[in-house]
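Side project, low priority. Logging it here so it doesn't get lost.
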Amino acid sequence: MSPTATVTAAIRVTGVEKSFKDVHVLRGVDFEVAPGSIFALLGSNGAGKTTLVRILSTLLSPDAGTAAVNGFEVTTQAGDVRESISLTGQFAAVDEVLSGRENLVLVARLRHLENPGAIADELLARFALTEAGGRRASTYSGGMRRRLDIAMSLIGEPPIVFLDEPTTGLDPQARIEVWDTVRGLAKNGTTVLLTTQYLDEAEQLADRIAILHKGTIIQNGTLDELKRLLPPAQVEYVEKQPSLEDVFLALVGETAETDAAPAADAGEAVTTGKELR
């Protein structure tokens, strides 16, 4: 179904609020995501990243504010939103008993698509999994499982993909494999909203980065724009440009306070390869 209005932003969030009993998780969130871009949502433990993704994917309703995905309102046009998106969570949702190809064929059949075998073969080739396609998914490395998981989420060619901390628990090589996959999605025109535990991940991938702190977006910009928020440091008479880590810590403090959060956001953390303390 076509959007009801001309889409100038793939995702538009305005004044979104969400509370769980007395816990205010989102306190008026505003941002837009351009079509075909990678947008990173960065925040400390309990900042509300997963809650926001759940609202955008119609799994939760906001208490206030509006959100539109692919031109459709998440509260009044939830079915159209779901047809426009895929959602990949923190852990790969593959059936380990089935082969990689069988996982893909199963999803294509569940979506009632024609030629599920051809769809599976095309995605195996696209994600460099053709040689492993006949093997059980239980034999795959972490990076291969995550690539298969993302491939499964793309069946039906959704224009917008939500990746909620896609490299959690992966080793460095597997993370690089997933990064290459995400870059490939954007190159092919898919809009990606990424939440991440890792500052370097946002630095490597995102066209724009929004820092979510205590339920609001406190900064939103390109990496260069965020770095310009801090002056260069002098290191032995040579200017050292600030890193995203420097910017994040300056904005939220070295020991970012975290309000109590519901289970939806439990376990989130921002790291640079080590936990921020």
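Brief comment: The radius of gyration is 19 Å.
Revisit when time allows.
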